[in-house]
Amino acid sequence: MDPIVILTGLAASLAWGGGDFAGGLASRRAAAARVVLASQLIGTAALVALGLIMREPIPPAAAMLNGLVGGLGGGLGVLLFFMSMARGKMGLAAPLTAVASGGIPLMVGLLTEGLPGPTQSVGFLLALAALWVISRPDGDEPVQKQAILLPLLAGIGFGIFLTAIGRIDPNTGFVWPLVAARIASMTMMIAVILLGRWNTANERDGGTFPWGLAALAGVGDTAGNILFVISSQMGRLDVAAVLGSFYPAVTALLAVLLLQERLSIRQTTGVVMALVAVVLIAL
To answer: What's the whole-model pTM score?
Structure first.
């Protein structure tokens, strides 16, 4: 397999993991919908600048439609994801989301592109097992239903985004479909904020809006999206999706290092399994 496919897929997980950590922190200081909207405004500005610099032509309507559909799923996913990280452990919410987000494009890739080689197949199975192991709660620690349901619903939204964006024709470019995705997502966030149900959630009395964290979240998410599209266009959708789904390890590691969150022995074992899976998929 082309090493660029592996490297861009893993780089996407690094960018997403760092961006999600920043977004989760920001959502503990301000409403999740406002954080999502701010981060995506910044990310969209970066995408538009990139498209103009690259002089990428406007793609066909089908590619833009893929972007719009993906944006609706991704917008819902990131809103629920930031909410889940604001209300619970990042080290638990992130891998739960990855189980669902990686599973949908994985199944689509297997159905449309056929089964991969035996070594990669073992890697896929080990990767799914690793994601499941990572997502298991600590043995003696009770887990609320909301701490499980929100991340899984977020993962379904992300899975729709990854599948829609990953199916864009490589010859049509990727910047403007991603811009279309952001427009759809931001429209959804504006509607949510105007409804008034979320605009006071998680607000701190007298606090200022965390623009720095929102910017980091937007840049990380945008970079991850671009790297994922490159990986999926140069290789298989399922390979790119599985490699990109290891972003929870990055989020969890940052939570351990910066927030002193603890991972259980079971979750640490899952991270090791995930690294072995990456090697097998790369082979």
So the answer is: 0.77
